[in-house]
């Protein structure tokens, strides 16, 4: 049976847009297959504005999420498995959904199948060094720093 997570991400995303708010994702950058700018990472988490005004070519797929966005004025491709998403929330009031952290998949689980988003205006080969999260290292513990050891969300204004 397929995971409900990507369906919930898409539903919450639509709900946020329907309410004229700004959707943000929290991504675990240590999850295998995450390709994102590491210079904006805090505590192994990356908060991404995925509003239509902030991204191009957004794909909220069952297996992965992909888009092109500007980081510090530079257009970059961002790709990550849907399972790397820790939460989706609104910037304006923090409403949304937090997902339980999943165990990391074993290495070699299809990461090589990933290709850049067609027509995204950027090429992954052109991304600056260090823009890919390490796939070789796993944290000793995946417990978050929030209440009861769960994941935490930081509101970005």
Q: Can you walk me through this structure?
A:
There is one protein chain. The chain has 157 residues and is mostly beta strands. Helix content is 9%, strand content 27%. The strands form 2 sheets. Strands 2-1-6-7 form a 4-stranded antiparallel sheet. The longest helix is centred in the first third of the chain and has 14 residues, at 5-18.
- Tally of DSSP β-strands: 7
The quaternary organization reads as single chain
Strand content: 25-35%
> How far from one another are the termini?
38 Å
Number of helices: 1
Q: State the major sheet.
A: 4 strands, antiparallel
Relative helix content: under 10%
As residue ranges, the low-confidence spans are: 109-150
Mean pLDDT: 78
What is the N-to-C succession of helices and strands?
HEEEEEEE
C-alpha Rg (nearest Å):
15 Å
Which features does this protein show?
157 residues, mainly beta, 4-stranded antiparallel sheet, 3-stranded antiparallel sheet, 1 helix
């Amino acid at each position: 049976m397929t995971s409900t997570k990507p369906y919930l991400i898409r539903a919450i995303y639509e709900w946020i847009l329907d309410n004229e708010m700004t959707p943000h994702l929290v991504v675990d950058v240590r999850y295998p297959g995450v390709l994102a700018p590491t210079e904006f990472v805090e505590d192994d988490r990356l908060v991404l504005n995925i509003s239509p005004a902030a991204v191009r070519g957004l794909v909220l797929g069952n297996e992965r999420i992909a888009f092109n966005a500007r980081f510090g004025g530079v257009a970059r491709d961002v790709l990550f498995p849907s399972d790397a998403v820790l939460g989706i929330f609104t910037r304006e009031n923090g409403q949304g959904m937090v997902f339980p952290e999943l165990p990391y998949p074993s290495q070699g689980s299809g990461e090589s199948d990933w290709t850049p988003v067609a027509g995204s205006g950027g090429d992954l080969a052109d991304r600056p060094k260090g823009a890919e999260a390490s796939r070789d290292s796993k944290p000793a513990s995946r417990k978050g720093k929030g209440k009861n050891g769960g994941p935490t969300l930081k509101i970005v204004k």
